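Predict the 3D structure for this chain.
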Amino acid sequence: MTSINNPAQGDTPIVEGAVARLTAQTVGPVLLPGDEGYDVECESYNLAVPQQPKLVVGAANAADIQAAVRFAATQNLPVAVLATGHNALSSAEALLITTRRMDAVTIDAEARTARVEAGVRWHQVVEAAAKHGLAPVNGAAPTVGAVGYTLGGGLSPIGRTFGFASDHVHLIEVVTADGELRTVNATDEPELFWALRGGKGNFGVVTALEFALFPVSRIYGGGLFFSGEQASEVLKTWGRWTAGLPDEMNSSVALLQLPPIPEVPEPLRGRLVVHVRIAYVGPAEEGERLVAPLRAIGPTLIDSVADMPYSEVASIHADPTSPIPIVDRSALLREFTPELVDTIIAKAGPGSDSPLTILDIRRLGGALDRRPEPTNAVDLGDAAFSFYAVAIGAPDQAAAFKEFLTGVVDAIAPWSTGGRFVNFLGDSDATAEGIAATYPPQSLKRLVEAKRSYDPTNMFRVNHNIVPSSNG
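Done. Predicted structure below.
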C-alpha cells in the first residue's frame, strides 16, 4: 500500500488506494496538489487567503459530501468547505469540499419559501424570487454564498426591516461528522438547528437550506456619494439622522478609496468619497421625505437613490464581484458620536494616507434587535452599529495592512461593545478570543455542548472554530 504526501502540505500521508476509492464513490472530481484542475477547483474570492488543501473534492451532490466526510474521518483530516470564499480561512492540511456545483434554487411562491443548495449565490435567489414579487433577506454582495452567509447570521441591506437571514430558516440539511445526512428543524434535532443558525460551519457541511421570502418587489434605494472633503459633515449628519428611524429604513455609510479604473464611475475614480447607502422598504414618496436631510448636506457626486426593483438591490453597495485580496477587521459599536467620527476621520479621512479601500458602518436595530422564534445563536448584544474596514492590495502589503487595521480598531475601542459579528471575522480575528467575543457566555457554552455532541473530534475546525471542550 502506497501513500501520497506533499511535504508542503504537511506530514500526514493520504493512502493512495483510499483516494482511488473516494474517486469511485463521487460524481464530482477528487484532486490532489499537482493534478490538472486542482488550482481552478480551489479558487476563492479572497485572494489573500489562498486555498491549498491536501485534497479537494468538488461535490456534485449530498452523497459526494457524505463520501468526503467519511474519507476525512478515516484519514484523520480536518474538513474545510468552500462555496465562494468571501469569508474563507486557510485550508492547508485539510480536505476541502467545494460546493459550487450544487447550485439549484427552488421557489415555492405560494408558501413564500426558497430552497437553496450549498453552492448557491445570492444573485441567483434574488433573481428567482423576484419573478414572483418576493425577496430574500440576502447579502449586499450578489456573489456571496447564501448558505455560509446565513449560517453566520446574515446582515442584509434590509435587515432592520426583517431581521437576520438566519431568523427565517425553516429547515437545514446537513452532513455531520459521522457522515450522516440529517434534516433538522425546530422540532427535529432542535439543538443542532439552534446551533447551525449562527454557529457557522462548526457542526457539519450544510447541503441545503429552506427559508422564508417576503413580499417585496420594489424599494426606494441607492447611494448618495459625497466628496471626501465632506466626510466629517456627512458622517456626523448621518449619525444624527439614524436616531429614531423607522424599521423600514435601512442605511449604512462608507468611506471609499476607489482605484482609477474604467469600472469605477468617473466622478469616483482615484479619490476618497463618502457613500451613504439607502434601502427603504416602503413607498418611494415616504423614502424621499426621510432621505431629504441627507440630500440637504450639499452637492453630491452621484445620487442614485430612487424607486427601484428589488432585483437591483446589489447596486446599492456595488461590492466588487471579481476575486480580490482582502485584509479586514471589524467591531461592534454602542453608539456613533461626533467624537467617534473625529477619530475615524483622523485615521481614514482626508489627508490621513489611509490604505483602506472600504470603511463601512451599518445602522443596526429595528428587527435585528428582536429575538426570533425559535431562537438561534445570533446575538449582537447592545450593538447599535457595525464597523468593518477593508484593505485591498498585493500579498506583500498584508502585514502593513494588518498593523494599520489594528491601529484603527484600537482607536475606536472606547465606542466598541467589545463584541463581534461572526460573518465579519476575517482570518486575523478568527481566534479563540475573537470567537469568545462573538457569543454571550451562555450561548457559547451551549454551542460548545452542541459541538461536543455532533463533532467531538473537531473535524470541522477550518472555520471560526468552536472547540468541543469545556474550556473551548
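The CA atoms of residues 227 and 273 lie 5 Å apart.
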